[in-house]
Specification:
single chain, 159 residues, mainly beta, four-stranded antiparallel β-sheet
Length: 159
């Protein structure tokens, strides 16, 4: 087993918060690639199956650029959508797919140029972020230190 594969998470299982609830999603690693989604029940004593979907059935028409799955290339779970509980993002070859498990369809896909076993980090960008002023004090201090000759242009600061 390579060092890289030992550091990466298992790409066929994910736990995360989506739609305000704790969810667990798993993906079988053999065709028909069953994607299952569970939600922690209200009593927090167990998991309730919400959705189960055979991905191979979605791709049966052959009109998808991520097919065929070649070699050991299998779908992997990238992330749970933070708001839409029925949407799971998958990495399939060189594509990221959004699969709506409730509708049973791929709702979007984009090319993916990252490492084939890399994880996707879901994040929510607050609406006020584009108008927020980013503090410039660190940049000012760097420029002052460079003027004083205390650091070179290529020095790296870790704070």
């Amino acid at each position: 087993m390579s060092k890289l594969s030992m550091r990466l998470p298992n790409m066929c299982r994910r736990v995360g918060v989506s739609g305000g609830c704790l969810r667990y999603v798993e993906l079988s690693q053999m065709a028909p690639f069953i994607l299952s989604s569970f939600v922690l029940d209200a009593s927090r004593s167990g998991w309730t199956l919400e959705h189960r979907l055979a991905l191979s059935r979605l791709w049966a028409d052959g009109a998808h650029p991520w097919l065929p799955l070649e070699g050991g290339n299998r779908p992997q779970i990238g992330a749970l959508h933070p708001y839409e509980a029925n949407v799971v993002h998958l990495i399939v070859g060189k594509h990221i797919l959004a699969v709506d498990m409730e509708k049973g369809e791929v709702t979007e896909h984009v090319p993916y140029r990252g490492h084939h076993q890399a994880s996707i980090l879901p994040c929510v960008v607050p609406s006020w972020l584009p108008t927020a002023r980013i503090p410039s004090i660190a940049v000012t201090r760097i420029l002052e230190r460079q003027k004083e000759g205390l650091m070179g242009e290529n020095d790296i600061i870790i704070s």
